[in-house]
Amino acid sequence: QEVVSEESEEESNGVNLMEFSDEILLHILSYVPCTDLVLNVRRTCRKLATLCLDKSLTHTVLLQKDYKVNKDKVKQLMRDIGKEIYQLNMAGCYWLPSSTIDHVTRCKNLVKLNLSGCHVTSLRLSKMLSTLQHLRSLAIDVNPGFDASQLSSECKATLSRVSELKQTLYTPSYGVVPCCTSLEKLLLYFEILDRSREGFMLSGQLMVGESNVPHYQNLRIFYARLAPGYVNQEVVRLYLAVLSDRTPENLHAFLISAPGSFAETGATKNLLDSMARNVRLDALQLPKAWINGSGLLQHLKFNNPFYFSFSRCTLSGGHLIQRVINGGKDLKSLTSLNLSGCVHCLAPESLFRKAEDDIDSSILESLVVSCCNLRHLNLSAAHHHSSESIGNHLCQLLSRLKHLLSLALPVCSITDVAANVEKPPTTPNLVPQTFGRKVRIGIQTYPRNLGDQANQKIESSVFWALMGSLRFLETLEIIGSSFSSAMPRNEPAIRNSLPPCVRAHSVGDSEVAAISQLTYLQSLTLAQLPNILTGSGLVNIGLQCQHLRTLSLANLGMMGKVVYMSALMDMLKHCKCLRDLRLEQPYFCAGAQFFQALSHCSSLQRLCIVSRSGTLQSDAVMSFMASCLEVIMCHMFMGESLTVCKNLQQSIVRSFQAERPALNVVIFPLLHEDLTEVIRDVPMRHLDEITLFKSRVAEEPPNLWW
């Protein structure tokens, strides 16, 4: 009786959710997926029935990562609130059948529509766009078989009013660009393969009937991202040919992201010369061959730049300061800077300099002072070695950038120079980096308590101080300057990797523990840290970084053994918000203990494991999939046989596909000759965001699209 009376007293003193004001309830409901609001929550009571249909909740509908949505839910959603939707994002809904798109026609007032990654035929697109007369922003894929001649006059009339277009090309085509005569923003993603499934070489020539000229006269933003391959380069040149004839007067952002070598031609040179004469830019990214050795940057004019990317360019620090920052000009408008792979960008000259030579701290200081409002900075894929000068360490200078939200650094750049000098030169050889016979070594025991570690060493290190000064950092990447993933894009898996930088051997568990100071950290990437001995710093991160959603670990510690497995399992038990996990490590054993620890990550949605000579336990994988109900992507590229991989993949699909419509499972031998054929069938959302390793800090301008 006493227990019952206490419970009734608690209920009477408790706060009823329905007693909150409408404003507070609307704010709470804004975190609930729209499908749940309309199809479930609004049926609970009259008050919620009214609030769930408030314009603030139905104006914009985001389905792009609502992995539980299916065709029937979309149909019901459009039927109930279709007329109230002004912005609809279905990007990456690869699991929905193409017939689902037919229901979008109910959204008569749509202004913005994102269908990237959805299956849309020419006829369906024509039928849908014919009814959307208010549409101004559109994102679609152009797949093989697309035929612009099937677009109706009503569809073309809608396209003529579209001012923003994002188009992902899987086949050589102009897509709908020629129909969009009012374009102000054009984003192009070229994902065309050089060979067909049958092995035939593809041509970059456009299909017959696709000779219509794009209309760029009103263009303000031009962005093109190319996947590897010569066909993509051929097709993008066709898009650029029109720009080279007449450069739009209002162009203020010109960005081309191209891997490898993308040679400059006469047409592109004319385009750049015209831009130098006629426009003032706010954002710039060019292929490295267009910048290297040219005086282009000296002639281009900038207004209030917010984004620069000189990734992989041989730009020296002297040129960077003189031609881009104008000798220390105030660039408070610059919020995002990508210098990934610019090995000489922090040195005055590049002609007689080795990539491993010390940086010139005065150049970095000028950069920090001029660009004091930077929010995204990428300095990865280079050897940025600080000298022994007191107060001029790279970490000390970067600590002045108080507004940073994302940062990418090479491992060797965070080495504490003073501590490094004190260590004997034989330290790098303590941990073997070969795949041969394992050498039995003594492993230093690190305390797992963060306070003990701080007292031991790291509170005085420059990296510890940097992490302490960047309290609001959300994304951090620490990547070895010579690291390359075992799983490249369109070629066989890499069998050998380059050894880490000598200075990287001074970065270990204590530096990883320093990252735990980042209370608001959401995404963490650690790659090629050879001196990880126990992984104890990972446990600290798991305990302190409770907002962590994305974790990517690659080649930590000695390569012949996963030395951090115990610490990783302890860490995972605390990662309640973790959604994406990518692990790349030779000889990784994905067994029962690992998956039992991973099962504590109740929010996990995507898992990718890449392991040369790695093993897995099929029963453990099945148990994990059964216990973690949110997992919709499972990619494993291991050392198991093709038969084992296929059987496990089929078992997972057979057991869970019906309950999880978005389920995507790929389990395949890493070194199999058909790996590239398997990769091409992976949905682009997963391939680009997690399966393929890359640095993502300042990869694109902020808020480029939705």
Largest sheet: 20 strands, parallel
CATH topology of the largest domain: Leucine-rich repeat, LRR (right-handed beta-alpha superhelix)
Q: Enumerate how many helices there are, as a single number.
A: 26
| CATH domain class of the largest domain | Alpha Beta
> Which whole number gives the mean pLDDT?
89
- First CA to last CA: what distance? 57 Å
Total domain units: 4
Low-pLDDT stretches are 421-448
User: Helix coverage percent of residues?
Assistant: 25-40%
Q: Which band does the percent of strand residues land in?
A: 15-25%
* Gyration radius over CA: 27 Å
Shape category: globular
How many strands in all?
22
CATH superfamily of the largest domain: Ribonuclease Inhibitor
